[in-house]
Amino acid sequence: MIGKKTRSLRLAAALSALAVAATTALSTSVAAATFTAVARFSGQNARALSVNDTGPLHLIKAFGSVLLEEGAAGGTLPGLAKVRLLVGSTVIASFTIQTKYGTIYGNGRAALHSSGRYASFGGSLSVSHGTGSYARAHGSGKLYGVIDRRTSSLTVQTVGTLSY
């Protein structure tokens, strides 16, 4: 005869196994539904790129701690890069990259490391939207840069993943 304690343990083990199985089945079906929805939404032409672009930019205008910079970007997505930087203890950036296939828009946030003439920064970026071939652009990555305090020129590098 099975005691009450043993019955309770077996019942608890059975319920636990049932809960795990149900959770696994639910998460599998949710993942499949999400994949199907994403596949339908993004269509056959959806692409993902690993991006690594670098650009030496030059100062267009400065308003106190706000710098407007622009220049040619080279790498995975060559084109004209325009960056608006708010420089403080944290660098807050908004950017556009105009390529021959469309424009990509995004923003970033980075910690500023200052030492004399050159100030470097490093942080994260996100792509919010785009135009043309990049109309459904989104992505994330890392943002790195160096500002020359004498000339206010900027060298910037972006590394990340872009889906469009």
Could you list some keywords that capture this structure?
164 residues; alpha+beta; AOC barrel-like
Structural summary, described in words:
This protein has one helix and eight strands, in the order H-E-E-E-E-E-E-E-E. It is of the alpha+beta class and 164 residues long. It folds into two domains: 1-45; 48-163, AOC barrel-like. The chain has an eight-stranded antiparallel β-barrel. It is globular.
Task: Classify the fold: give the CATH topology of the largest domain.
Answer: AOC barrel-like
What is the arithmetic mean of pLDDT? 80
The topology string of helices and strands comes to HEEEEEEEE
**Largest sheet, if any?**
8 strands, antiparallel, barrel
Question: In percent terms, what proportion of residues is strand?
Answer: over 45%
**Count of DSSP H/I helices:** 1
Q: Radius of gyration, rounded?
A: 25 Å
> End-to-end distance, in Å?
65 Å
CATH class descriptor name of the largest domain: Mainly Beta
Strands of the widest sheet, in order across it, are: 1-2-3-4-5-6-7-8
Assigned CATH architecture of the largest domain: Beta Barrel
Number of domains: 2
> Could you give the count of β-strands?
8
Q: Which percent range fits the helix content?
A: 10-25%
Question: What is the gist of this entry?
Answer:
This protein is an alpha+beta fold.
